[in-house]
Amino acid sequence: MKTTANINFYNQLLRFLIYLNSAIILVPDQFKGVPIALLLLVVIVRYLKLNQKPVLETKKFVISISFFIILLISIAYSSDINFAMRKLETGLSLVVFPLIFYIVGADKALLTEKSIQTLKLTFIFSLVFFLISTFLFFYFTEPFYTFKSTLIHYTNLVDIRIKHFEIHSIYLSICIGVAIIFTLSIIGNCGPSLKKALFFVLILLITFIAILNKKGPIIFLGIVGLIFLIKNKSNYKHILYISSISAILILFILYVPKYNNVNRFKELFNIENNKNSSTAIRIQIYECALKKIAQSPYFGYGWGDTKMVLNDCYEQKNVDFLNKNYNSHNQFLSILLSTGLLGFFTFIYYFFYLFKISNKKESQILFLLTLYFCLNMLTENILEREDGVIIISLFINILLFKPNKERDVLSNKI
């Protein structure tokens, strides 16, 4: 009886820590590792106290950490070990979260549908709190700022003016995209009060992703919505709902004030005449990355040397990128630069496996999140920044390892 009570205590503590990790955006930067470490510690202690150990899915775990292991091996032939160690520290979530959910994933009493929904809601409402509170903070504390000027400068302020909570606007946009997907997965299967709250939240999320005005996360969210409609064979309710969201988002993008009165989407149609646009800069970075990959295609340059290799190319091209320390701005190119074709194919197989498991488990949430993250990796190294790697590793692994009790689909009751 005492053992049962102890296990129940650890279960409650474990759920709390999982929810805390889903609200990681509200944790100061210097303490973000603490909830993850506590979660791992409680998972291990709980496992040791269990009388009946759950069946561990070792194949999933090995595939989940395989590309990270290859990155780790590549440190051996990196010349900049200090930089490699910093990247290793940032990327530890890629091992820790698979280990956590490898240990607890088969426990059907722990990872219930209710607990997964609570996890989603915690992430959604903590993000909304962050967005509203930071906006109000800028509005009331920035000298001479009006509501309109706060709208205009929010994209830059969120990255530089909230000490210990800074987050790049692209990564904040990606988080908003995830929250929109989560909201759509919940909104049709909840009570009237929560449904009204989520409708309001959805409008807020659309507003803020339009204010941030980052091309990649918005375009990729649209692609995910289109593929969802195709997979669900044109359910008219889904078409109406997603079309309405898309129309609202487009209107906001067109009419919400922009920083320096610039709409970033216009640069997609004027790359040649604007060499300083983010799109034009990315094209030049990709040229350098591909050139260097071709010079060492099989094993790459090592995890610690990608920055040095790219900087060498920037210097040769005589472009002003050295002071800004640009990375490859494409996760797949970064893997190729770090580990060559061996690491790249391991990385690709990992995502192929995620799509395969999502189909086997009939989990549309896992499929759509994996797709959304993959698309964003085409323009960002989101596994190399703490803001990206924690969110991806947490949600992908909890959905990958959780027991398959029923179909995990977006709601038909809109």
From TrEMBL:
Subcellular location field: Membrane
Main location group: membrane
Residues that span the membrane, as ranges: 7-27, 33-49, 61-79, 91-111, 123-141, 167-187, 217-232, 239-256, 332-353, 365-382
Topology relative to the membrane: Multi-pass membrane protein
Keywords linked to the UniProt accession: Membrane, Transmembrane, Transmembrane helix
Record has Repeat as a keyword: no
Domain O-antigen ligase-related residue range list: 200-348
Entry protein name: O-antigen ligase-related domain-containing protein
Record organism: Flaviramulus aquimarinus
